[in-house]
Design a protein that fits this description.
Layout: H1 10-15, H2 21-24, H3 27-42, H4 47-54, H5 58-66, H6 73-82, H7 98-108, H8 112-124, E1 136-141, H9 148-159, E2 163-165, H10 166-174, H11 178-204, E3 207-211, H12 220-229, E4 231-236, H13 239-249, H14 261-276, E5 281-284, H15 290-305
Parallel strand pairs: 1-3, 1-4, 2-3, 4-5
Helix pairs in contact: 3-5, 3-14, 4-6, 9-15, 10-11, 11-12, 13-14
Length: about 300
Amino acid sequence: MDRDLLQPREAALEAEPVLGTAAARSPLLSEIGRILRRARAKRGMTRKTLASLSQTSERYLAQIESGEGNPTVLVLEAVARGLGLTLFDLLPLGESDAAQVRLGRRLRRLSAEELSAVARFLDTGEAHGPQRARRRRISLIGLRGAGKTTLGAALAARLGCPFIELDKLVEREHGAGVSMLFEVYGQATFRRYEREALERVVGSHESAVIATAGGIVADEDSFALLRAATHVVWLKASPAEHMSRVMEQGDFRPMGRNREAMKDLIAILEAREPEYRRAHAQIDTSGRAVEECVAELAETAARLFAGGG
């Protein structure tokens, strides 16, 4: 991402807000605001960060999210880019059918060659190229504090395979921390780095335990790859337990200096939960000893490897 894009467009922004009684009552604007709030929460992104990435004002973003702002198409497109989405992703285009919406979003991102391959598949019913097998790869998804690092390392030791944390792999390959990569390059670029790292891990390890960032489910392509090439396990916990574990770790990213941290955490979990539920299995770690969770995770992995889930 061009760093110049992080600078505010003061003149354009002050002219953008269009408010009024009709706008405030518009079902369309209210639905756009709801979609925007969920998209931002799904990525764990603060409104301040999105304001910087989309070159708009934090105050105006709040108005759009509440359904009181009436953004122009260009403003909405800029906000979508800041989220790593397209303009159409923020429009209420049949949100009730989640599978259809996900497919539509992925199709819009395909190149002409990829679209041709999809068309051939639909015409012939045959995929061109071998299906990527999951083999003996386990990936762990969930919010920070779910136990992905602790349980993942323990499971890898039991299975005698590598334990790989995608975030740390991306940091080593690009020479900067996750927060810095997000700040300098933006959400979309970081997700591309993450997806490329995942592709390399899958290509070089038939057996591995992979801990992912909580927001990987916000990227349709990365999550599709994860589900196709690994057995995905959702490690879940109650919001209170997530918060207490994060506090023990001393890491409030992306909630640092936010007095409403718990509210934000709940919003993030609610926005991501439909995607987390697409995992091949799930384990609730709330109020349980590490040894007990490791034992259940090992049993779950054995069942998935055997084709029982």
